[in-house]
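Supplementary Methods S3. Input chains for the assembly prediction are listed below.
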Amino acid sequence: MKGYKLFLLALSALVSGHQFLCAQTPSISVTGEVARPLSLTPDIWAELPREQAELKDRNGESRLFSGVPIQVVLERAGVTTGDQLRGGNLTKYVLVKCADGYEVLFSLAELDSSFTDRRVILADSLASEPLPLSMGPYRLVVPGEKKPARSAYQVTEISVKHAATD
Amino acid sequence: MLVVIALLSLVLLCFASWHPEGQVLPTPLAIDYPSYFGHRISRPPANPTTVEGVRLGRMLFYEPALSASGKVSCASCHKQQFAFADDRRFSAGVDGTLLSRNTMSLANLLWVRQFFWDGRTRGLEAQAKEPLTHPHEMGQALAISVRKLEQSELYPAYFRAAFGIDRIVGDHVLNALAQFQRTLVSAGSLYDHYLRGGYVPSDSENRGMALFFNAPGGQPRGAGCAHCHGGPQTYQELFHNNGLDAFPPDSGRKAVTGQEYDNGRFRVTTLRNIALTAPYMHDGRFQTLKEVVDHYSEGVANSQTLSPFLKDRDGKPTRLRLSSQEKIDLLAFLQLLTDSTFITDERHSNPFKN
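Predicted structure tokens for the full assembly:
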């Protein structure tokens, strides 16, 4: 009986350890109306071109974030951008989902450099430091908006969709 | 008994419609809810809500035969008089073991996509399976529940009417329970009457409403509750660490996602009927709403994953320091969210007692 209890204890420790080891590497998935569904792992992320973008914090001070333009991510997944963004493709939208369940929406044209000079980025650093746990590892930075409500924290999924038919 | 069954079958047939090929089809049921709740609802096409399905789901919700002991039903812990929550800190199932988290209220689930305190299950159909089969809840394999139902004199006719089938399988049980729970819409509170223009809040309720919806830095100053509990439903599908502990003893959503940033995160609950659903928080640590308000006013604990919306501009936990009167006002507003029609609605009550 004692041996049985010891076995259970060992098993329990093994299971706890396994749970500990199972900590997941954060990534962003790009899904929906895409030619190539993507999981943006750190390896892929490291290959992508980077840009900087400014955002005012709650104190009204400008902060410089850096990361990857969301258009680059969309192009990598084969989303209809640039010349392809016309006609029916203009009824597509991007739903950005975050770890805490928060969601924000953009029309595809809002994020496309053939329509706007504003560059929305998926930031992974602030003032050259990785984002704090409460914000990162990836957040949206949407410059030029009066409210920061779409500059969402902890982005986990970018879902491209077509507006529903009536 | 045979006469009763024959009468029941006749009643069922009255609600159903005949398919051209002779098969009886269940009657689609439109779920009534106010437009200000929005239409972003979850109703899987594979399990349309029907009159017959909801009726069966209601019976199953109150059916103790679905438990290993034959004594526990969904309603044993989800009690209608408490807006389908439990008044105990932790509910006990068939084996008497206390559950590790507080039983959640079942209201306005039509707008919920991820279930349980940690959001580990998508959809009401999948959700229903866990309490039915969990050894500390109802503790019975679905296959055994199905066998019991098939062998009963009562149920086969109801399953036939709801799903047009002669042989019950586990998914039918889950689907019927999900259909019933989708009809648990709570929209008859005084706050709803106010939203429809039929109730004038008192001065205290009005001040409480302003506190609830306004931001801490706003004018007049607010408590920022609506940032997470916003909108007429007082619900958004969010998971946050609300500062209960500096070192959360329950990792919450982290156990589901494996992500460190989810440590200590739990569902932001609806505040509909909140005055009826004590005790509060995932671990039922607060006995009263006053304690909850005190927590958000001056008790938020800092941690690595504390919600950024509960931090001040310096990154420290928010200290609202609400005055006694402000707390009274906020509590007055929260009382407006009690829906006395929901907890007495016979459509949701135990059908075996009517």
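The interface with chain A takes residues 114, 119, 236-240, 255, 257-262, 265, 304-308, 311, 313 of chain B (CB under 8 Å). Strands of chain B lie at 17-18, 24-25, 114-115, 121-122, 239-240, 266-267.
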